[in-house]
Amino acid sequence: SPSQGYYTRRGGVGESGDFITSPEISQVFGELIGIWYISEWMAMGKPSTFQLVELGPGRGTLTEDILRVFKQLSSVLSKCDVSVHLVEVSPKLSEIQAAMLTGGKVQQNPEDESAYMKGISKTGIPIFWYRDIQDVPPGYSFYLAHEFFDALPIHKFQRTDKGWREVLVDIDPEVPEQLRFVLSPSRTPATQNFIQPEETRDHVEVCPEAGVIVQRLASRIERDGGAALLADYGHDGTKTDTFRGFRNHKLHDVLSAPGTADLTADVDFSYLRKMAQGKTATLGPIKQREFLKNMGIDLRLQVLLQNSSDTATREQLLHSYDMLMNPEKMGDCFNFFALLPHHRLVHPDKKDKPEAKSPLPPVAGFNELLLK
Ligand code: SAH
């Protein structure tokens, strides 16, 4: 909701807010993602320009860490024209991002742009803000969505003796101002449109908005080139009832005090893969701890430990590594998933002359290739 929604009103990412995310836990997370983009940029033949497009940038920390890597590797990127495009609906978070990335020097509603705000990063890269991915100009782009898709609204469905029924929200007639879940008495348009015919689960959550956004990303990548890296709580079409709320880092009843708590549902990557509709290839989902290991997190940790002399910093580094990698913490429940042009994984003319081409470089992070 533009007026009463959680992100437009509150949006408490970070230690002082309602939930904490990986980039807020450790700088290493964003650094490794920055390296992923450079690695893909090189594998795709170093195009002369690219846009980094982030959906739901939170406090801007992830972009900040990525831009630091771009700066450190500026000799590699020297001839490349890079710009940053942030898709953000929250006025409060966009202000926090602007302060973090530009030091607050931004221009509101620039006349000649589809963006609602623009500025220049501390490292000299132009940054633009939009409310919708469709406002981002076309062009070769690397997309990033970290803990974005889990924030989008879902439909819930329950299998019953009479067939699929939608789980709806109703006002409890017995208790004023109390919401409750009810089953639709008959089929709804959503039950007809969003349940896959081959579905075997008894309870299903579908996020059509995520499907539409993935279709847009896939079309843009197919047309203009680039890649998308999506990371989120999620599963590959196996989980059922995952809808939950967080407030002040504690579980919160999803129906109580709407708009004041972060509402989240695990991302169904099998649904996103279907929505890419063959326009791009997909890789993953792969567990966060495997992706980060493949990206070299252990080596990066060793370097940071060697460079830090005080015990508190070393302890903090080890603690944040454990948060990101421990299977009981974020290591197993977070997944990475990528959309890539088909030619990035298979030579277009492979069928005709398989021996004529050198092998394509593997996609970093997805080493144990989960090609689907
Ligand atoms: N990626 C960040 C923040 C995740 S929280 C991190 O990992 O720390 C979700 C983000 O998505 C917030 O920035 C929120 O304001 C934004 N958001 C939520 N719904 C959105 C929508 N419909 N369109 C664009 N951004 C949205």
From TrEMBL:
The keyword NADP does not apply. The keyword Methyltransferase applies. It is found in: Mitochondrion. Keywords: Methyltransferase, Mitochondrion, Transferase, Transit peptide. GO terms for biological process: methylation; mitochondrial respiratory chain complex I assembly. It is an enzyme of class 2 (transferase). This is Protein arginine methyltransferase NDUFAF7. It comes from Aegithalos caudatus (Long-tailed tit). The gene is Ndufaf7.
